[in-house]
Design goal:
Helices cover 31% and strands 15% of the residues. It is built from 7 helices and 4 strands; from the N terminus they run H-H-E-H-H-E-H-E-H-E-H. This is Nitroreductase family protein.
């Protein structure tokens, strides 16, 4: 793993997999094997969750027909590039503690975010990349994918093998680089919150 070594540097010693994970837009139209794809969801399976509820649910689109359904609710800016990814995934979570309960689980989104994080790191380990998108119509996604009312849709993820930036529309090519991160001093506070 050396793709991002020139662009990103950690300030503290961490496993390089965290730095290697980034969100490209250029994907090869190359199929992902069932075995490899299942490794990503196996990693997500082991994420922590409140009361071990495991509220996350993933809806995958691998066929041309299923990917076309996803493209009906993804914003135009994301359609420009994500239509080449071999797998699209809707990340959803059960809002209640149980399917047949009205009691809201206040950590369902937080826990599902942990599962997505585990999935994204396993993708890098498997030689894949992921790109999570918030630019989509949630209401339409729920309708098209037949998602019940007691579930939230958080993101759509593109998964695939990274392609060359020249595959992208010219307007996106300049953005096809790993982004840096704020130093921890900007978001870790001792004792009380600081602006």
């Amino acid at each position: 793993m050396t793709e991002t070594n020139n662009q990103r540097k950690a300030n503290y010693k961490i496993n390089p997999i965290y730095i290697e994970r980034w969100s490209p837009r250029a994907y090869l139209n190359k199929e992902i094997s069932d075995e490899t794809l299942n490794c990503l969801f196996e990693a997500a399976r082991w994420a922590p969750s409140a009361a071990n509820v495991q509220p996350w649910r993933f809806i995958i689109a691998r066929s041309d027909t299923d990917r076309a359904k996803f493209l009906t609710f993804i914003n135009d800016g994301n359609k420009k590039w994500c239509d080449k990814a071999p797998v699209l995934v809707a990340v959803t979570s059960l809002k209640n503690w149980k399917v047949d309960s009205d009691d809201i689980n206040p950590t369902h989104g937080f826990d599902t975010g942990a599962a997505w994080g585990f999935l994204s790191l396993e993708a890098i380990r498997q030689g894949l990349h992921t790109h999570a998108m918030g630019g989509f119509n949630r209401e339409k996604a729920k309708e098209v994918l037949e998602i019940p009312d007691n579930y939230d849709v958080h993101a759509i993820i593109a998964i695939g093998y990274k392609g060359e930036k020249e595959m992208l529309d010219e307007s996106l090519q300049q953005r096809e680089i790993p982004s840096n991160r704020k130093p921890i001093e900007e978001f870790v506070f001792e004792g009380v919150f600081r602006k």
